[in-house]
Inverse folding.
């Protein structure tokens, strides 16, 4: 008897306006690995004079696995983010050359097109994507047709043509922010334009609202026919082109938008809670006090009461500065916060991989910079764990694939310069929906539903479907949402 094992792989303060001082300085590419900016499964990376080159393997070397190969921007173990921040509606932009047409022709296996997907870096879920057809009106037309995708494979035909050609002398731009979603340049225009069609703008763009960190994936439609050379030419307007390994760093660091206190205490060090990210290495900080005295670091030490106007600087290796003006009131004493309401979490019944949200505590305080936190533990556990707050000021608790129900104990803290206060401990029970196990499979997140057997994961996972007799053939139907 001929039998096989069939497995299924599942994929899954008061802060015044910011000032930027640009100082043309050079940094050496040897100080930064190309793999920090562009690499991925089956994608090699290297610095070239034009930028960071990514060579994406094709079917000639990957065979049937070519469809899984992809280039990720940004990437690399040395990158502190592994992603781009769009928090506080920051705009992220990449410029990419795609070398379909050169000395040899390389395309996707399913036609002369390439895909760029945008994913949520916190859970790897797809937010949207674009497929560019590079031969529409000819390969050197200067702009081409495209289709957009939602979080799955629903297609929204483009109502414009995206600017660029698929050769290494040209490039395509992909820009993202929370408000506008995906944008680019279209044929005949030098202005960023919304890429939308019909209901795309109203159904897909709102999905960016609760996302703070993203990354880009470059893929072929069913993989590429051969090794494809691509070049990442710029990130957020910073050119990656270089001469003899030196590039001009003209873009200042990006400051975060953390809340800065409005009131601080006399003769007490105040650490300004701002940090910055720069593409090219570490960032240093400095504080300029009300008397224009500059001190390295992030600490301001007030020696008199009253209103103070100070500056906070973030400085990159090339000398570019991002400067934020800060208005503070220095007073004699800061009082600790007062908790006014602790939200009572309601018991709930969830499915696996669903998320339970805790509301934030409410309080009164005078500085404008108090920080609230939530700590939870399983009933009977020894220690609590802090839960990070999302953009909606809620605390998400995600149920794992092996979730079987849990009673959680939780409490809140609120802290400012005057002290820290802690709420009483509360409890909530989160139950799992009843389900029917599938006895002949192995693997997590497998159960019976009305439509058949359901497989779920929020990451890579394999599920063994059991032993099959193939003498009479096998017919299996899958439904992908």
């Amino acid at each position: 008897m001929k039998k096989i094992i069939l497995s299924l792989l599942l994929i899954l303060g008061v802060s015044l306006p910011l000032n930027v001082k640009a100082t043309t300085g050079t940094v050496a590419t040897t100080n930064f690995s190309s793999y920090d900016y562009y690499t991925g499964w089956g994608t090699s990376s290297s610095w070239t004079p034009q930028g960071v080159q990514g060579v994406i393997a094709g079917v000639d070397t990957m065979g049937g696995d070519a469809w899984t190969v992809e280039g990720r921007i940004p990437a690399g173990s040395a990158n502190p983010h592994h992603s781009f921040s769009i928090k506080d509606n920051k705009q992220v932009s990449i410029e990419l050359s795609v070398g379909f047409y050169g000395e040899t022709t390389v395309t996707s296996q399913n036609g002369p097109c390439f895909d760029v997907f945008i994913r949520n870096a916190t859970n790897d879920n797809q937010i949207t994507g674009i497929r560019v057809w590079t031969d529409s009106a000819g390969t050197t037309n200067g702009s081409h047709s495209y289709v957009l995708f939602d979080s799955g494979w629903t297609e929204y035909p483009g109502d414009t043509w995206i600017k660029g050609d698929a050769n290494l002398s040209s490039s395509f731009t992909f820009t993202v922010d929370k408000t506008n979603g995906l944008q680019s340049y279209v044929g005949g225009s030098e202005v960023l334009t919304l890429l939308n069609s019909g209901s795309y703008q109203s159904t897909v763009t709102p999905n960016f609202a609760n996302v703070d960190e993203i990354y880009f994936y470059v893929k072929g439609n069913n993989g590429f026919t051969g090794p494809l050379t691509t070049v990442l030419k710029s990130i957020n307007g910073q050119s990656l082109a270089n001469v003899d390994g030196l590039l001009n760093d003209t873009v200042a660091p990006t400051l975060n938008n953390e809340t800065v206190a409005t009131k601080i205490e006399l003769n007490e060090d105040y650490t300004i809670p701002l940090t910055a990210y720069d593409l090219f290495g570490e960032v240093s900080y400095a504080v300029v006090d009300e008397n224009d005295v500059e001190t390295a670091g992030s600490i301001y030490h007030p020696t008199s009461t009253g209103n103070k106007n100070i500056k906070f600087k973030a400085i990159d290796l090339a000398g570019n500065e991002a400067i934020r003006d800060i208005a503070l009131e220095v007073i004699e004493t800061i009082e600790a916060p007062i908790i006014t309401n602790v939200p009572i979490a309601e018991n709930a019944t969830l499915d696996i991989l669903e998320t339970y949200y805790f509301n934030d505590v409410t309080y009164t305080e005078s500085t404008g910079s108090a920080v609230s936190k939530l700590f939870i533990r399983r009933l009977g556990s020894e220690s609590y764990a802090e839960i990070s707050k999302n953009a909606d000021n809620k605390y998400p608790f995600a149920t794992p694939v092996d979730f079987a129900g849990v009673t959680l104990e939780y409490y809140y803290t609120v802290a400012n310069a005057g002290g820290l206060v802690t709420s009483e401990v509360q409890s909530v029970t989160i139950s799992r929906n009843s389900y029917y196990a599938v006895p002949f499979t192995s693997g997590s997140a497998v159960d019976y539903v009305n439509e058949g057997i359901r497989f779920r994961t929020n990451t890579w996972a394999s599920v063994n479907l059991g032993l099959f007799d193939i003498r009479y053939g096998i017919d299996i139907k899958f439904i992908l949402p």
